[in-house]
């Protein structure tokens, strides 16, 4: 299932979401220009290096969340941010949402690092921070509806409550993490989602279940 849009009106322009999409796009262009392998090696989050030198490697917690491993990687992350981020930003306010997003990305990277502390493979991508946004959406708007496309022989469209859709998404991340499927930081997704679940009420200025 892939989300197309939600039926949940935001009352203010999502300026931070738009800024984050632009920042990620510019970072991706920088990667392509400077050489992806070189940039990822210099700025990706490497758990083994971080636990050896937390202070010297701390900058990678932030830089890694603006790097991506390919066009599909950045497009999928930015699409999820675009679909779900505007309402969360609307509820939190611009400044709080930006802080929430960045801290969620840091928490996600640390969760992946704690799950695989000896890993020397650089971790990159905005998915941990975006997962925090998904966790916040689950808490703040569980009864909003999400229109998704489902591919089964032919594509068809289904509308789900956000609580169901995002709960299914989180369970899927858990199963894939437990199976140890390579190539994706599943525990970063779960760490970011948990961050969003727990801290969204504190960042939302007028929290209530919708």
Structure in a nutshell:
The chain has 210 residues and is mainly alpha-helical. The protein has one domain: Rhomboid-like fold (Up-down Bundle), CATH 1.20.1540.
CATH architecture: Up-down Bundle
* Largest sheet features: 3 strands, antiparallel
Helical element count?
10
Backbone CA Rg: 17 Å
When the domains are counted, the total is 1
Subunit organisation of the chains: single chain
The H-level CATH homologous superfamily, spelled out, is Rhomboid-like
Low-pLDDT stretches are none
Strand order of the largest sheet: 1-2-3
Report on the architecture of this protein.
- It is a single chain.
- The chain has 210 residues and is mainly α.
- The protein has one domain (2-202): Up-down Bundle (Rhomboid-like fold).
- It has helices at 15-34, 36-43, 47-52, 54-57, 59-63, 71-92, 94-115, 127-140, 162-179, 186-203; strands at residues 2-7, 145-152, 154-161.
- It has a three-stranded antiparallel beta sheet.
- The longest helix has 22 residues, at 71-92.
Task: Give descriptors for this structure.
210 residues, mainly alpha, Rhomboid-like fold, three-stranded antiparallel beta sheet, globular
